[in-house]
Amino acid sequence: MAVESAQVFKGVHDTPTYTDLLFNKSLRIGVAVPLALGGTATIALPLLFLDSGHAQTLFFVPLFLTLISAGIGAMIPYGKPSFGFRVRSIWRAIRPKNESSRDSMILAPPEDVIGHLEFTKHGVYANYLVSGLRYYLQPTKHRLGAAERHRNMAREVPAGTWIYSMSVPQSQRQLLRAMLHGHRDKPEWIATCQGLRGQLAQKNPRTRLYWLRFPVDAGREGHTPLGQATKFKDWLAGRDKDSDESLAAYRSLAHDIVTSLPEDFSPVPVTEDMVDWFWRRTAWRGTFTNPLPRRRQGTARQAPRNFPVAEFDDGDQLHNSGRKLPMLPAAGVMAALTVLTAVFVIVAPAILFGLIAAGLIALWCAGVRRVPSWKKVLRVSNPAGLYPDSYQAILPVTDMPKAGIRFPGSEFLDALDDLNTGAEFDFAISLVGHHREAEFVRNDRAKENLDDQFKQRRDARDGDRELRDTGLQLAEYNRQLHSNTDERPMETAFVIAVGAKDPATLDRSVKRLKEQLASSGQVSVRHHRGAQAKLWAAFNSGVPTHKSSVDQFSYRTTATKWSRFVPITSSQVGNTNGTLLGFNTSNALNSAVLIDLPGTARRNHNPCLVCSGAPGYGKSYASKRIARGEYQRGAQLFIVDPGIEWAKAFADVPTDRKAVIDMAGNNFGCDPLRIFPEPVAGGYWLDYMIPMMGLDSRSVAVQRLRTILTARARRQLQIPSTAALMAYIASIQAPIDRPDTRPGQVIRLAEDLYPILVALQSWSTYDFTRAIFDDTLPIPDLANLDMTIWLTESLDLPDAEEMSTPHLYNDLSDRKKASVAIYGMLVRLARTTFFANKSRFGLIVLEEAGGLLNSRAGAADAHLISRRARKHYTGLLIITQDPVADLTLMGDRFITQQLIVPFENEELAKEVARKAGLRAADYDDLEEYFIADPDPEDMREPTDFDEDEDEATERPNRGSRIGTAFFIDEFRRPAPIVVAHEPDARVHAAYDTTPGQEAA
């Protein structure tokens, strides 16, 4: 596959002009012209006025002015930003002037807002929210698809379109509403959600919002000459911008544009409240922290918006203004010196002093009265003190590699979300499309200029290399345009805004931003002194790029090359409702991650989750949080616990709502003939008991037994339990104390079933099979219990090798054979119980599921659940330390959701990542998410103690990896997360599995 790259063609139309007409030496026009004119004047004036007595003055003054002019010409930078922009910025820094949104057209808020339409002094704009595309940790093919969708969008939007992106807080109130959605009648769940308020406030989850704005009053082309002609025609016709006819035309055009965009962006029109929020959020960036308003019901027209006044102090003169300058006294001194030197006919000094005096007076008249702050900061305030002052920096992107940035890896704007400095980072992208044929003509002129400059400039200032590089860029630009008739020439600008609560935070954030961009893609941004207020207008609605000076940082590109920057992406994982699983750590936004297993079934996905990883890193903790959340939301739980940790974790659940069944105890029974529904009980008994007792399923004894265990036969023979079955078989055996009067048919049946009786009597003597053979033990009412915990610590499951190797399987101990049977029965019992009730969600939890999943019956049942759980409103939660080995027999092709905590085995970690669909070829550093880092505290020098010897109270830990995990949601979106902790301290401690320690 060809190497892709994101690229802007900077300077292809801005080649500096050199000439060799002066002394046959290559000089820039800005140098050659002053030298030619000034040199001529320097020689001619003394000769013309040789007898005037001022020949010396007329020689040195023009010479001085010529040298000054040529020096300035040599220092004038070519290309963008222009010399005029730089001069105006320096002037505004020298003579700062506070501006207000009431007085400045480029800083003013919209004049009116009707629905998603903004009416500004510069035109009418439509506003939409768009969704970020799946991109993070996706295969290269999928990332290329995301870039292609950006390309299609760039080809469809009109010229003058803006894309804004803001880092905004997730509404914590809305998060709680999302967790409570559909379960407001569950007091326990409401209390849990309320308890999470503190954790949400501490994490302060954020998300990235994308806002699309484009003009709708200039036709489909937008801000092009044709679009301007459309606006002029409407003006001549006297069309009222907010008339019903105009509004209908604007909405129709907006609808036509957004429906031509790829559906993946999911454009949604904003509301008037959102436009109001956008203005406040942009003006007081860093201090206005309200989340995006919700979409309110109803479409009634509200009163005209009253936007708050914003005052812009470029350079923060309020806090940094210097002392007052003595301009007039200094001008008086210079004027006196001018008079004095003129009296003594010292012409040159007199002229110099006069010019200085005039300059000082001119500066004073222009308003230069104090030493300016010279700070690169924009302070935005409200005269009424509505919001705290915001300190902002507006940084346009000024440079990136000429050859482009290799794709994937060119998404430099993603670096903004990796910064955690206390500031807010936003960006704006300007898109201005150009006519193809006009662009070809301009490229031809640029090529002619390059050819001419090769002759005029030669190799002055490394001219050959510079011109050759520009020529290659121009050729590539032309090639891109010729490659496809749909290719669109464009001009784009990237502007990054940083907002903070104080100047120190802003300064630190800007430094970190520059470092991050330089390392992520060799991208450079510049912090222009004196231009901050004008550049801020890039984020204001409807301000033309030439008025906000953004055009000084706009560069040519094509829709394809621009699309490889992939600015509209999302790393969001999880569901819109559900239990708070944790917080997304793929960047510094810490967005909340919800998981909704019942909703997964309703969305026609399988509600199955595999939690895997090394012991001690929190997979059981996260599983218990998920299980408790589903229990509190009304689900039934069926938990197979190889120890007692789940019983401890749910000890607070009332006993009338749960049953804790110890398979070695005497409180409940699990006889297949009693626990399964009557129509299938006999068949299930044979499935588990025959392999357990080591009998041949093809033997005559088993075949005769199969006829007895049919539902009809059991009712006739009154065999409701395994104990009754033993009694029946024993009753038909030959009597010992009396003559044998049995019919021949019964005798043959008794003889055939005798091996079954012997096996049953033998197996009934074990303590670990009492739950099967003791029919006096009660059977739990699974249908009416909220939670059933089966403690299987007394059982001993074989490993995968023992189950798959015939001779090892034949040599299994009776305890292991019974364990396989009982485990299998439990899973099937859960399946039959939950599958029978489609009105209530049921969750099956298998802790340390390796042994069960390595048995054929258990693996088959688990596989069936993974395929059919969606239809029966049942979920499956598997907890395992080795998902590769443990899921082999079962098969995990239909399980999408995974929660992976760190592994301590590198090969296993790589294999898990591969099976999860994450290719190391796409991400070289992928293993860092899956491999555990040892804690330096555990590896220090043995004699290096700085604490008392009592370390029994210290929790053994695994460094910073405890609580971290890698989550893959039902839509196969991956992201690293940190698992949320239980808000109740007692429950949090009950989840801990480390002996003698508190949960961390």
From TrEMBL:
InterPro entries, A to Z: P-loop_NTPase
Keywords, comma-separated and alphabetical: Membrane, Transmembrane, Transmembrane helix
Region feature (Disordered): 932-961
Any Pfam family: AAA_10
Spans through the membrane: 29-49, 55-78, 333-364
Name the record gives this protein: AAA-like domain protein
Organism: Mycolicibacterium conceptionense
